[in-house]
Amino acid sequence: MSDLLERLRKRGWRMTAQRRVVAEVLDGDHVHLTADEVHARAAQRLPEISRATVYNTLHELVNQGEVVEVSTDTRAKRYDPNAHRPHHHLLCTRCGAMRDVHPTGDPLVDLPHSQTFGFTVSEVEMTYRGICPACAGGRPAGEAAPAG
């Protein structure tokens, strides 16, 4: 059973077939799907699921704090089920691949008091942007280029 499904069960969330399939699609590490991607994957498992049901379910999961809506500038919003573990994101600016990252240090501490402008900062969202290994030449991370 996925972490998300377990959290929803503990919350007492009514688990319809449609809600279950959306939660199952969102299961896993480094999951950052758009609503359309969630719908496409859910429809493979439950062909009668409607786009509206997927959108409504995602909206409810975000409102409950069980899924985080991630904006990446001009791309569609993505949905991250890793809502209860603090993390940041690494984004490929070519293909849009996204990974969860856990840098050391505390970005709240790293912000000098003179730069808070009187704000009481409660959270930080950071996105590291770059080119993934596939877009940079098709080699997995850490694999050396052929000699030549």
Summarize it:
The chain is of the alpha+beta class and about 150 residues long. About 30% of the residues lie in helices and about 15% in strands.
Structural class: alpha+beta
Indicate the radius of gyration in whole angstroms: 18 Å
DSSP summary, beta strand count = 6
List the total number of helices: 5
Q: Globular, elongated, flat, extended or rod-shaped: what is the shape? A: globular
Our estimate of the beta-strand percent is: 5-15%
Task: Strand order, main sheet: write it out.
Answer: 1-3-2
Keyword list:
148 residues; three-stranded antiparallel β-sheet; three-stranded mixed β-sheet; 5 helices; 6 strands; 31% helix; globular; disordered C terminus
Q: What would you say this structure looks like, in words?
A:
This protein has 148 residues and is of the alpha+beta class. It contains five helices and six strands; from the N terminus they run ααβααββββαβ. Strands 1-3-2 form a three-stranded antiparallel β-sheet. It has a three-stranded mixed β-sheet with strand order 5-4-6, with no helix packed on it. Helix 2 packs across helix 3 and helix 3 crosses helix 4. The protein is globular and about 55 Å long. The termini are far apart.
List the topology elements:
Blueprint: H1 3-11, H2 17-25, E1 33-34, H3 35-45, H4 51-63, E2 68-70, E3 78-80, E4 88-92, E5 98-101, H5 107-110, E6 127-130
Parallel strand pairs: 4-6
Antiparallel strand pairs: 1-3, 2-3, 4-5
Helix pairs in contact: 2-3, 3-4
